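Work package 3, deliverable 3.1, input record:
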Amino acid sequence: MQETVAGKTPAGVRLRPVNWLTVLFIGPFLFYVFAFLVLPSLRLLQQAFSGEHGFTFKYIAQLGQAQTVTAFVNSIILSSVSALVGLLIGGVLAYLILRPGAPRGLRSMVTSFSAVAANFAGVPLAFAFISTLGSLGLVTLWLKGLGINLYAQGFSLYSVTGLIVVYAYFQIPLMIIVITPAIEGLRGEWREAAENLGANQWVYWRHVGLPILLPSLMSAYILLFGNAFSAYATPYALTSGSLALVPVEISNVLSGNVMLSPQTGAALALGMIAVMVVIMLFYAIAARRAGRWMRR
Amino acid sequence: MNGALRMSWSGAAMLLLAGVYFVVPLIATGIFSFWEGGDHYGLSAYINLIHQRELWESLWTSLHLALETIAVTLVFLIPAVFWMHLKAKAFKPLFDVLSVLPFVVPPIALVAGLTALYTGPSWFVGTANFLVVPYVILALPYTYRALDVGMRSLDLKTLTEASQSLGAGWGTLILRVLVPNLTSALAGAALLTIAIVMGEFTFANVLLFNTFAVYINYIGQTSATEAAALTLLSFVITWLAMLGVLLTGRGQAQLGGAR
């Protein structure tokens, strides 16, 4: 009834009461996000650019310091390599469990375990790996019994390499979760058509399968990168804040562990947001391209 | 045929290797939690833990923060998503963008911004309840998605018109018509929120509140075996929450927020 009235009268007449209800229903939510997500981010922007005498580039320039550059480099290496590990291993595992011949039970087991493992992160994950591959971890001691001394050979759980091993624990399952719909979207007809035209396994993947999956793989990679880049609890619990990573540096500033100003912390946080904005833009582009094939 | 067989062998080997990688840390943590030094294994880590008041306090803190987060989320989100679907489709793109913003602003950056912006009043900012503010934001991508998918599957227009023609107001409509129709979406959103909040460390650690994850980290500095026991407990909590998400139907158990 309301709709016919709205359709017949000029828009301005009906608009007022509807607007009022819209404000009532949607307003609180928008206010919440604005007050507790948008404003704090803008505050960082303002803080990073203001010194004692107003506007300044001083704190942004401090991002060029050796320590900060190391933190950004470490964070980016850690994120890109752990995302690559997740992409490759998770992708292959997802493909293996989704193949027509794969046992049914296996598939539901892997996907439900992935849901748990992708959410099992942070401090507990760090301690699980300390129990396993830490300097007194079970596997470390067991390998030592076999004559392989991991730590003498340069491996350390508390380094970037070690963190990559740990991050794989949530990156691989996450990859399996996000890539499954795309692999399921590969239609049997495409493979049959390719095979009828004489393609073998490799040619099919090279010219059909992978090009179709590429946008999905890209968006998955970007998601994994961002996932690792903003991780804080796992590296903090594992290295007690000693390994230079951007999130850890920010928390050191916030807790007053280092002689850096809050403005430097804000500049660091802003740097992180800048990286994430770029990442999410790429994500949006890749996801849109992926959507083209997913809709069918 | 031969090729297919060979593939399945290497495939099986890969799956097995991955299985080892994922299971061994859990087994190692399990064994480690029973270790009492030397060759002794027993329940002492668990027995010590049961008697620690701080453990129960931190668990309780995290649990009640999770419940508060769910409550605040639902109060702000249900009406907004409902109205967006019913009357204000134009807001859909904005909502979609807002719901991924928490990914763009990493938790550690958000906590820096929040502490710079809100310094009082101390009865709010000074208590653990303040954590609910960022937790709602942290869970937003998952809660919004769950509600959005849930509402999309309902014929909101018919439900609204039917209940209004029977004399229901907006409050009755939401509480007695909408919510019962959304139980599986709401349960999914709530369970994901619990999993996220129970494991959340960033905000609590920076703002110096003793939540479950902060307590595990603290115990880890003094007693590795007790930390292993708590790690297992934490895994069980995550597992139960995800099991709940899968059982309540919608299946899309996605990534959590506590890295």
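Chain B has one domain: 46-251.
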